[in-house]
Each structure stands twice: as structure tokens, then as C-alpha cells.
Amino acid sequence: MAAGTAMEAISTATREQFAAHEMEAAAEEFSSIVQAHRPQIFRFLLASTRDVDLAETLTQECFLKAHRNWAGFRGDSSAMTWLMRIAINLEKDHWRNRRLQFWRHTRTNSVNLDEASEWLPSGERSAEQQMMAREQVAQVWKAVEGLSARQRTVFLLRFVEDQDLSAIAQATGLSEGTVKAHLSRALVKVRAELRGK
Amino acid sequence: MMRFKTGSPDSRNEQDAALDPALEQALKNFRSSIHAWSEAEFSKPHAVRVLRLTSWRTAAGWALGCVLAAGSIGGGLYDHHRRQELAKIATAEAAKQQKLADEQRARKDDEDLLAKVDNDVSRQVPSAMEPLAQLMAEDEVQ
Fold first, then answer.
1. Distance (Å, rounded) from C-alpha A197 to C-alpha B95?
2. Based on the domain organization, do A95 and A132 belong to the same domain?
3. What is d(CA A87, CA A62) in angstroms, rounded to the nearest whole number?
4. CA distance readout (Å), B32 to A19, A47, B98
5. Is the ipTM of this complex over 0.90?
6. Residues A117/B33, Cβ–Cβ less than 8 Å
7. Is residue A64 one of the residues assigned to a domain?
8. pLDDT in tens, B39-90
9. Which of A141, A147, A195, B63 is the most buried (most CB within 10 A)?
């Protein structure tokens, strides 16, 4: 009888140890996910909002939400796709909430297109090439600003985050056909802007 | 019309090949620009938003606190004023009651005095009228 009780106590302690170890492992795994994907999520949100503070806030919220739901992540898609989906939904919610506010159009923290176009990697380019590149970037930004929210998301995921269509479809919850259609329309607009139309 | 395919990096190259060189170059520059911007911003510490939210929350907290404090002080003052008014009314009422009681007492004293005087006067009747006075006293008793 006493031996049985002792065995039970040992097995409870083992189970607790195992659970603690599992939790620790999950925390470590999530920490590595954050380190690996935070820059990419931030970049996507920065490109979507052109607002550094907002991008930072939404990135934090994204990982907070991911942490809360980490146990429910089944790995059907990659962690990056899952995180991107959370980020897209957060951004959508943010604009939806803003739409309810009367100061909807006051994007006080968004940098303007010229400012956003200033950023170029310091490659071995001539001043003329740099200027041309800057002009092109400004034109693309202008076209991006004219895109619908979905077109913009799809466009940025494809041409900034370099994701393929199936990953974009998973992250946005759209079919691949719809993604293709959005991308095609977005490119038509960007091309038109580059041609000065 | 350009064609997009999904899946492997090879198919991505095929997609990119469908873009004309000018567009491709512009998109490449756009991508590089955002990457450069993001890297520069990402490496900076970002406390601005948090601070602003904090200050906004602090301001809201202070405003709410002020409203509550003003409300409680106002409520307290009103209550104090109301209590004072009630006390004044109660004092006036008590004074009125006291006055009435005094008047009643005074009236009673007068009546008692008059009665006593009457009694005394009635007792000091001449001895010739004594039987009559006694009769009156007996009538009163009856």
C-alpha cells in the first residue's frame, strides 16, 4: 500500500517534471521563432503602413497573439505563413478600427512617399543610377498607394517578401487564382505608373 | 498577359522572367529600398509608440482621476451644504417648537395663577357668605 503511494508520488513528480520540461522547450522554440521571423514581419508591416511606430506596435501584437495561440499552432503551414496571417489580420483590424474614427485620413505617422523612397542600399552605384533608382522606387510607392488593401498585401508579399503564390494564398486566406488576379492587377497599375500613365 | 506559377524557387524565376526588364528593375529597387529602410529602423530602439501610448493612457488616467476627484469634492461640498441647510431647518423647527412650548407653558402658568387667585379670592369671602362659598365648592367637587 505504502509502496503504491510512493510510486504514485514518483510518477506525479515525473509528470510535473516532464510538463515543465515541455513548457521550457516550447518557450525556447517560440523564442527562436520570434528571433527568426520578427524582422520579416516588421518589414511587411512597415511596407504596408509606412509608419515605423505602427509597424513596431503591430509586430509586437502579432508575436503576443502568436504566443497566446502557440499551443494551437498545428504546423499545417510554415510558422512564417502563420505569423504573416496574424500580421495581415492585425493590420486589417487596425484600419477597420480607424475607419470608425472621424480622423481616418490623418495618417500622422506615415512617412510620405518621397521620404520612403529615400531608402536605398548603399551599393556601388553612380549618383545618376541612384537617382534613377530613387525615382523608380517613388513611382512604385505611388502605384502601391493606389492599390486596394488586398492588392497591396499580395503585391508586397510577392515582391518584397519574395513569397510564392501558395504561401501568399495561405497567408491571406485567398485562393491561388484570386492571388494571381490581384497580383496581375497590381502589376498593371505599377507598370502604368512607371510608364507615366 | 503574364503568367504566374506557384511552388518552387524555379517557378518563381519563371514568374519573374514574365516581367519586363524595366518593371523588374523597378521592383528590385523597391524591394531593396524597403529592406534597407526596415533594417535601419529595426536596428533602432523603438520606444516612441509605447511612450506615446503610455502618455496617452497617462493623460486619460489623469483626466479620469481629475473628473472623479472633482466629482467627489463637488459631491462632498453639496452634501455638506445640504446637511447645513437641513441642520438650519431642524434648528429653526426646534426653536419654533420650543417657542410654542414656552408659550403653552406661560399660558398654563397664567391659567394656574388665575385659578389660584380665583380660589384664594373665593376663599376670602366674608363669614356671612361662608355657607354659600362652601356650597359652591361642593358643586365644583360634584
1. 95
2. no
3. 6
4. 45, 12, 97
5. no
6. yes
7. yes
8. 888 887 655 445 455 566 778 888 888 888 888 888 888 888 888 999 999 8
9. A141
- Based on the fold, state whether residues A103 and A14 are members of the same structural domain: yes
Name the strand (E) or helix (H) holding A93: helix A79-99
Q: Three-class SS of residue A108?
A: coil
Q: Is A141 on the interface with B (CB under 8 A)?
A: yes
* DSSP track, B9-35: HHHHHHHHHTS-HHHHHHHHHHHHHHH
Provide the number of CB pairs (under 8 Å) joining chain A to chain B: 102
Q: Count how many domains chain A has.
A: 2
Write down how long chain B is.
142
Domain residue limits at A187: 126-197
Distance CA A33, CA A83 (A): 10
Cell representation of residue B29: 529597387
B6·A164 Cβ contact <8 A:
yes
Provide block-wise average pLDDT over 10 residues at a time, chain A (197 residues): 65 73 75 88 92 90 90 80 92 76 55 69 70 86 91 94 92 93 92 82
